[in-house]
Each structure stands twice: as C-alpha cells, then as structure tokens.
Design a protein that fits this description.
The chain is of the alpha/beta class. It has 14 helices and 15 strands. Strands 6-5-4-7-10 form a five-stranded mixed β-sheet, sandwiched between helices. GO terms for molecular function: kinase activity.
Length: 422
C-alpha cells in the first residue's frame, strides 16, 4: 500500500486534536505532561494550549505545589466549551441526551413513537434534536458540535444496508444521515446501536476498566459492539459485529438475511415475542413489559424461550471467546433488567473456551452499568470522535452549515462535514 504525506496545515490540525484529546482524557495536565503523552515539544504544546484556551475548549485548573521554581499551570477541559447530542431510536421511544464535552449529561428527552416508517419517525428524531439544541439557560448556540443518532440495523455511510432492521420497516437504503443533516442544518452521524452502546460503556460504564471487550446488545434484535485496545472496531466496511447472523443452528429457522439458524432467530427480544405471541395479530401488540410479566409469572412459552436463548447464546459466546482474547463480554441494551438477569443466570455453566486456559481476574460475562442509557450516551460521543478522528471514518461531504452557530472548534479541528481527513 502506498504511503501518503501530510501537509503542514493538516499536521497542525492533527496536533491540536491530539493535545485536546490528551487533556480531555487525562487532565488536569501541565504542558510538560501533555508533551510527554503526545511526543510533541513543550513549545508546540504551549502554542496549541493557548489556541484551545482562546476558543474556550480548555481552562487553567490551578498550579501544583511542592516542586522547585514556579509551579506548572495545569489545564483541563472546560465543560461549557462544547456540546453534543445523542439520540437512540428503538421500537417504542426516541431517547435523547445533551452532553457537554467533558462527558456529563446536561438534559434529556424521551418521546414516544408510533409508526416506524421514515416519514413518521424522522420528525420525532428531529423534534428531539431540536428540543435539546434549544436548551434554555445554556450557552449551546455556537458550541454545538453535532448529533449522533443510533438505530438498529447495518449502516454504511449513513444508510441502512440490506433489508430492514428488526422492527423498523421501510428503512432499507434510506439516506438517514444525509436527510437529517440537510433538515437540521448541523452535522449528523448515524451508527448502529450496538457499536454506540459499546462506546458509551467504554466511556462511562464497566468498559472504563477494560481495553478489549465485546458488547452483546439486546434491543428488539441482537447486535454486537467491538472494542479493541480501547477503540471501536468497525471493520473494512463498517460491518463488523453482526453477531445476529452467526449461524448457531444449521438448517434451523429461516432468517431475513437468507440463511437459516441465525442467533437472532432464537435469542433476540423479538424471538421472545414470537414465542409468547405466535398469532400475527397478537405479535403486533407485544411489549417488553408483557414479556417480563410472562417470565415472572412462570409462563411456559416464555420460560422455554429463555432456555433456548441461553442455549444458543452459549454456542455463540464460546465462538467469540475462541476468536478474541477479551477482558470480558458485556451484556446490555434497552432490555428489561429482570429479563437480562434471568438470561445471564441461565448461561451458566458456560461452554469451555480458550478463556479457561489462564487464570482470570474477573467474570467472563459482565452486565452493563448503563443498560438503556448506553446507546444515547454512546451516540453523543459520535460528533466528538468524528471531529477529533475524522481519519477513522469515510469522508461525508456536505454543503450544510449549522443553523445553531459555527462552533469555534471547527476553526481548529476542521468542519467534520467538509471531507477533511487528518
């Protein structure tokens, strides 16, 4: 593969991102600390920190004492220097959260949804984003970095891939990202729910103590987010982690993907609905609350589904563990916690895998700390990661400019919509 150079202006932009990310993740830090972490000279760090401070992205947090000479000045991220929005779309609700650049939730919204077609669901997503962007008594105007939207399904370049996501009819090949960007006049980044849940868990949940884990996401279907060496892994085309379509029962139940015996046909919440409500007219009225009530009351169909789901999940988990050297598998998503607890209980004993070769310091299966909050929090990190690490993503050119004011961060890091790649 041919190597490509980088011009001076792009190098300066990259260095700004590196310095800001070091302070964001590890601060408060002195200039010398940042220089050691980034490999940049102290003078370069001093120049960049002055630029970041001038536009309000970082601030002085005081001086250290106990050393010789003038105590070094520490810097930390200024939470009010920028904001991002995360939105999670599931079968029943659109949930949104406004987060400052220090990662702290500021405000949230939750709106019910009815019909799932784009013409019905898109206005609900737009209303949630617009409501959060117009948060009163907060200096959001001119500081909004964009919004992340997470939905079930296979996404590539902001479009839902082959077929419809489970429970979201009519979205095949729909340009979700482009449509929302043009309507809302701000950077919008669309990602699948499992990857964003894994990102949220890495930033705010049990994943903070792990560098390598897979997040098994129970929405209406099943997803899988992969974190390798602390960063999300998407694969060559953004399609990594399609655990739902791993075959666990050769020749088994037919799946919309064209295969038979896929995991999603046995271990998803939707498969639980099918077990409990086999008649089509009943299936349309299925809800998480009804499934939970059936399990707690000892309904035979619901309990049989739990046993089957655990059986096929054991097979998938053994394969995952034999493929990856993980700290743990994390399970979560917008699944009712009692259902998740019952499912995890029935996974024991897990099948033998390479994870049993060496002594382990923790459990093989860990429950998410965030559960239903994870996808929205993970989505709020998408504008930040696309601003700071545009080289990790396919460029998404657009002529749209934010109606909510151009964030000063664009001047230092580049507009994430202009196709710039560090």
């Amino acid at each position: 593969m041919a190597l490509s150079g980088i011009n001076l202006e792009h190098a300066k932009t990259r260095n700004r991102r590196v310095v800001f990310e070091a302070i964001r993740r590890h601060g408060p830090l002195s200039r010398a600390d940042v220089a050691r972490l980034t490999g940049l000279t102290t003078q370069t760090v001093s120049n960049i920190s002055a630029e970041l401070g001038k536009v309000g992205l970082i601030r002085a947090s005081g001086k250290r004492s106990g050393g010789r000479g003038q105590p070094p000045l520490d810097f930390e991220v200024d939470p009010s220097g920028g904001y991002s929005i995360g939105v999670h779309v599931d079968q029943e609700h659109v949930s949104g959260v406004l987060v400052d650049i220090a990662g702290q939730p500021v405000r949230d919204v939750r709106l019910p949804v009815g019909r799932q077609e784009p013409e019905a669901l898109l206005p609900v997503i737009e209303r949630a984003i617009a409501d959060l962007a117009g948060t009163p008594a907060l200096p959001v105007s001119g500081k909004l970095w964009g919004a992340g939207v997470v939905m079930p399904g296979i996404f590539h370049s902001g479009r839902l891939g082959r077929g419809d996501a489970v429970g979201l009819a009519g979205w095949s090949s729909y340009p979700v990202e482009q449509t929302l960007t043009e309507r809302l006049r701000m950077p919008i980044f669309v990602e699948n729910d499992a990857t964003t849940a894994a990102i949220g868990e890495r930033l705010y949940g049990v994943g903070r103590a792990m560098r390598n884990f897979l997040f098994i996401f129970f929405g209406l279907g099943i997803g899988c987010g992969i974190i390798i060496e602390g960063e999300p892994y998407r694969g060559s085309h953004g399609l990594a982690g399609e655990l739902a379509h791993v075959i666990v029962s050769p020749g088994g139940r037919p799946c919309p993907c064209g295969n038979r015996g896929c995991l999603e046909r046995y271990a998803s919440i939707y498969s639980g609905y099918e077990a409990l409500f086999p008649a089509p007219n009943e299936l349309a009225a299925a809800t998480m609350d009804k499934l939970q009530a059936a399990i707690e009351s000892g309904n035979p169909q619901a309990l049989r589904w739990l046993e089957d789901a655990a059986y096929y999940l054991r097979i998938a988990i053994a394969g995952i563990e034999n493929m990856f050297d993980l700290d743990a598998l994390v399970m979560g998503g917008p699944i009712a916690e009692p259902i998740l607890d019952a499912l995890i209980l029935r996974l024991e004993p897990l099948l033998p895998s390479v994870n049993g070769i060496l002594p382990r310091q923790g459990e093989r299966i860990v429950k998410s700390q965030l559960l239903s909050d994870g996808p929205a929090l993970g989505a709020s990190a998408l504008p930040v990661s696309n601003m700071l690490f545009t080289g990790q993503n396919a460029p998404r050119p657009s002529e749209a400019l934010p109606d909510y004011g151009v964030p000063s961060a664009y001047l230092l890091f580049g507009n994430p919509l202009d196709g710039f790649s560090a």
